[in-house]
Amino acid sequence: MLRQAVVSDGGNAMRMESVAFRRSKRSGMAMSVIERYIRHDIPCAFSTCNRCGQNTSLRQRGIPMLDSASDILVADASVVSRFIELLEQHPNELTNIVFCQTVLDALDRRNRTRTIRNVRRITADPRRTSVVFANEVFADTILLEPRQPCESAVERDMRAVLQAANWYADHLAHEPVRIRVLTSDARSIYASGLNSNVEAWQLADYLAEFHPQLLEHFHTVREATGDMDITERTPLEYAQARLKAKAEGYAKHWSPSDIEDGLRTGALIKGKIRIVRASAADNKQPEGIVERGSGQPNIIVVGRAALNRACSGDTVVVRLLLAEREPSEQAEPNDSEDDAEEDPTEQIDAGDETEPMADQVRGTVVAIAERKWRPFVATLQPDEAGGNRHLAVPVDTAVPKIRIHYTDAAAIADRYFVVAIDGWPADSQYPQGHFIRALGPIGDLNAEIDTILVERQIAVSQAALAFSEASMREMPPSTWEPDAEEIGRRRDLRDRLVFSIDPRGSQDIDDAVSVRRLAGGRVELGVHIADVTQFIAPGSATDIEAQARGTTVYLADRRFNMIPEILSEHVCSLRSNRDRYAVSVVWTMDPACNVEQVWFGRTVIRSALEMCYEQAQALLDGERHVDGVGRLEETLRPSLVELTQIMRVLRERRRQNGALELASIEIKFEFDRATGEITELRPKRSLEIHRVIEEAMVFANQAVAKQIHQKTPAALLRRHRSPTSERFERLVRAARTRGFEIDCSSNVALADSLGRLAQAGDADLVFLAKSMATLAMQEADYFAGACDPDEHVHYGLALDHYTHFTSPIRRYADVIVHRQLLATLDGPVLSTQWVAAAAARLNERNRQAKLAQRESTELFQSRFVMQAEHLVADGVVAEVRTNGLIVYVPRFGLRGPVHLRDKSGQITVPLSALSGNPGDADRPISGCSGFAAEHDKLTIQLPLNVPVFHLGAPRLEVAVFDHVRVLLRVLETRRRRPVVYLTLLSRAADSKAYRSSLPSLDKRFRISAANAKRKEDNGTEAGSSHAVMCSSGGSAAGAAKGGACYGVLEKFAQLSLLEAASDVQGV
Question: The whole model's pTM is what?
């Protein structure tokens, strides 16, 4: 029995009580009371409405509001529950949406928390101008009476949505907007009771009328989500269906109360999990790592049962296991028919690190605190039985396969497509999901780029990165010129010799420098940065889009700008011989390069010349008639030399304080314009002028960081936390193999150690050592500077305060810092809460952009290798893994696996590792044994009858930092993007490819072999003998040519058997 009553509490609120009486066998009659407060002050959140007093607060807090220039869409439960992916994937078309509290309550009653999170993401995105309307607690829209006779809960909710839409129409009657209710429900409840300014639209009809380009996506989603409409079942029917589901396979997640108790007592640990292997198809258990930080050991979770349906990025609750307990004691959920098809990429899996897990403890997941599911790009593993229940294989190997229902499998069999996870029942090996849309054919370049953008959560496609009409309306005309009145408000530096130095072909020039001598040997140094904030007002459409993008995304062959091209390449870009607005930092320095005074402010400058790095380096080197410089050559050279001398001093000071020169590599691709093929791939050449400009930018960033930290309560700063010494163990051990000691007790000690290593003269070894040091460190990140001052330090740069100020055209963090810097002079201050939220958002955006850039580079590296045949290059061993090596190839700037043991444990050393012949790359040596992978060395015992000359029982021995030659090839699959892998050809000439176990007989046998060679009358046989002897040194390419050659090899094999026997007898 249900009874409702409304009680006035005075003021702006009333209280509605719902009293229900239920009879149970255990406790007899029970009464439950639900109180809901009814308010009169719920705002409409319409941007230009002044009738609602709370709207002013929303504007001041920067909360997204409904756009007055667009009609309002009110989406009911049938649309939100089934088509949320469609609503979320089109931020430029589907905007100004009102999500009623009624709809969110209905989703909550059916445990659709993921859909609710999607709604929250839409309403938090300023581009969407969408809101949640609390109609169930608003006095003007709440349905006070209980359900009408014969009215279902679904119909009651539809009536509540209609009530909210009618209220908006009445409330905004003076505004030129229409209210459109969107539904996919066939019932006619919206046919009557509509206000004259309210329209009811079927979603399909609305899209056909206003957004026909979205119809294909709509039909795709509708086909894939037939069972997701919550209006088709009542909450009771939904609950009954869930009770029928079997809870077999995975363990049930713990209850919230048990979790709370465990966290309080320390029995449970909460943290974010990173899945390092999602598939167990290679006979290894899938693994996850929960990083705890603060010097505490990581928690490793091994096996599907222990992971208990956790996905990478989820926040999980973990129970620690006893040291002697193995997680594999639990039965692993298994759908054997789904693992029957092998993924070929597993064949080149790089294997595990050989590092011991002393700093890790084992655990098992007992609950998922927060899911981090997102749209995933996948390929199809069809239902072998010919049905419609297929497996989507994500391109991200850290994501498990996803069960989907799709009727036309042939249409997406060889295409990338996007899927979403809906849930993961305990009785299913795989999560359940649905198809969203197709991207394009596997191997097609644009489909590959779209895949990267979706996987990195940058955009749903390349087309979606076009700027909105609202943003383009804010742009200045292409004929823009500086305003005389604005110039009068700025410091005029057009009399200074200003110049810029950037990569060749750059159009988005956001920094320039100047330097001039003053009286008494003093120097004026200036760094001038494009004044982007002059053209992007806070809260404008362009600002909102730039904030959402966070950064310009640079891929190997294209880029996606953070701000429109009219700004980035024209109006804001510091082009030569044009007056431009800038924000400048100007120092006055004494002859010893000590700062006497620093000035910050808005300026107007006129760059004399846009130089590329190569031109500037040529000037610095004293070259004459540098191409493109012309008559400015002798004018620019003294300033460039002066700038370089100053930067050398500043850089040396930082180095003495512990600044690190860490390794990073930038790959440059050159393309044939006609065919689009890659004609050249090479690492970017390192020049001194690179370091000069870098130091100037670091100097400016440091100065601005100090200014905003001192004058702003929540400065946006950038920090680089100190790593722990345990992270450097691999580098320390590897360096010892070459006789070097690495002291990582501080950044000063580490910098000195790396400096001594650089004196060895092996550039590749030094690069790898610096790469290891880089990997051992934590990522630098943005933060609001109100935290503990000890947290401000930038470890790598050896600075107390640092920020990003010098690239506002391509980084939104710099836009914020510009605003904060100008606010210290005269302007409003940003709140700490807003800056902290922005920092977290920008950290994620920057990380995803870097990953996209790396994946794009790997994509084009693989395409370059595919174009070539028998691509052979020199490499350096970077790591030893449990099934082979990781080798760095400096010529092409890539790292790849060298596989020496397959997934079944069989040793697969190619004959090419001894012969050096690429033709032997696919001929494994049978009979190998003794595979021993240590942290810095790999040893394999070779058989006595190996068909290459050797002495005694040889062994293949390769250590970290060894130089090797490798064959580069690409593995193409139907599942994932092509992957570059390497095959060992030989060791470098300065060290043997293998070592004999009979060194005492080595010289004697070589003399005997030489005498036999001199007595040989057959020229061909003699030539073959010569080739074999060279192969013992690892340099022969013709060891496998001709039958006569193998005859000689057989004789050598027999001789080595005799020598091995002599060794056993003690001869």
Answer: 0.77
